[in-house]
Write a structure and sequence with these properties.
Elements (H helix, E strand, L loop, with lengths): L6 H15 L6 H12 L2 H16 L37 H18 L1 E5 L5 E5 L5 E4 L5 E4 L4 E6 L4 E7 L1 E5 L8 E5 L2 E5 L3 E7 L2 E8 L1 E6 L8 E5 L3 E5 L2 E5 L3 H8 L5 E8 H9 L5 E4 L8 E7 L3 H11 L2 E6 L2 E6 L1
Helix pairs in contact: 1-3, 1-4
Length: 336
């Protein structure tokens, strides 16, 4: 009997078996060993089936980046694909020498639920599904944590580090490199940093920036020079509105509340029900609707798992005069 292993260890073993099977050097003895491994544990079988299903859904397209060194951007003209595992699949001829890299990518993608697509314009895009939160390491040593339903495009080279936040929210931990400022672009705005930690929430063309370490600069294109920039120090919050930038210094408790999503929580402190519902709806496919405006201003508090709307709804129904009714893909709140 195989000793008890962590889920990460099981996923790694499943990925190694999968990579070996797809290498082209597979025989009946290998198949027998794989069957025995899957038969020894339900967790083993589930892990392998998940990887195999993701592969089938990808259509077995040729992947981008065959033979490209780690951290490098593939050359133009190569093809790639995006699927739900975050995997870069290599042609069969390169599998034997790249099995470990493939296995690591398979495990990371399955565990995080991140979509990874390498495009032909020398940028890599990452996105998360509704309800998913994951951290992406970049080749320059920086890290980006993506909140639910978010997408970024990353282009790093010897002279520039450019990120485009297409939608959602991201927390950036930027490695120091004075020769290559780290620039995040959002519509007509740019947030520039060298070595710092900050988050950006995008709302259409406006943004909210929170700085937890170092300093950043917000720039706006097409604005008079005197009003085109705003400097933010650690502990600052900035919100863009129309042609201006509003800067505040929230309390540490408020900063913790705004960034609690990184650990999978939503924190409410004397929060209006309407605002709390809007936050939960970012993480859930069945949307919560306040049908009775008389309850929209009820103040609530507490820490909730962002993927556990049921606990939030239970609190509303048991602790407040609120009815919770499920209708198809909607959850309706009314006054009791």
């Amino acid at each position: 009997m195989e000793p008890c292993m962590s889920s990460e260890h099981i996923e790694a073993s499943a990925a190694a078996w999968f990579a070996k099977r797809e290498s082209g050097n597979w025989n009946s003895a290998d198949q027998a060993q794989l069957d025995a491994w899957m038969d020894s544990s339900t967790a083993h079988r589930i892990a392998f089936i998940r990887l195999n299903t993701a592969w089938e859904r990808s259509g077995r397209l040729a992947a981008l980046g065959a033979g490209v060194p780690s951290g490098s951007t593939p050359a133009r003209g190569l093809r790639g694909f995006s699927n739900g595992t975050g995997v870069r699949i290599l042609p069969r001829s390169r599998f034997p020498s790249r099995m470990r890299a493939i296995a690591a990518l398979l495990v990371a993608g399955v565990a995080a639920g991140i979509l990874w697509h390498v495009s032909t314009n020398r940028a890599i895009s990452y996105s998360t599904a509704v309800g998913a939160v994951t951290t992406v390491p970049l080749s320059d040593g920086s890290k980006v944590t993506l909140n639910t339903d978010s997408q970024i495009h990353v282009a790093l080279d010897r002279t520039t580090r450019r990120i485009k936040l297409d939608q959602g929210e991201a927390y950036f931990e930027v490695s120091k490199d004075a020769a290559r400022p780290f620039v995040v672009e959002i519509a007509d705005k740019r947030v520039v940093a060298i070595g710092t930690k900050f988050s950006i929430l995008r709302n259409n063309s406006d943004i909210r920036v929170l700085v937890t370490e170092g300093r950043v600069r917000i720039e706006r294109r097409g604005t008079a020079a005197a009003a085109a920039e705003a400097q933010l120090a650690a502990g600052s919050e900035a919100r863009t509105a129309q042609s201006g930038v509003l800067i505040d210094q929230p309390t540490p408790a408020r900063m913790e509340e705004l960034l609690s999503w990184r650990s999978g929580y939503i924190v409410f402190r004397d929060t209006a029900l309407a605002d709390a519902v809007a936050d939960f709806n970012r993480y859930s496919v069945p949307k919560i609707v306040i049908q009775d405006p008389n309850i929209a201003g009820i103040r609530i508090g507490g820490n909730f798992r962002s993927n556990d709307a049921d606990a939030f709804l239970w609190l509303l129904q048991t602790g407040f005069p609120i009815n919770v009714e499920r209708r198809s893909d909607l959850i309706i709140l009314t006054k009791r």
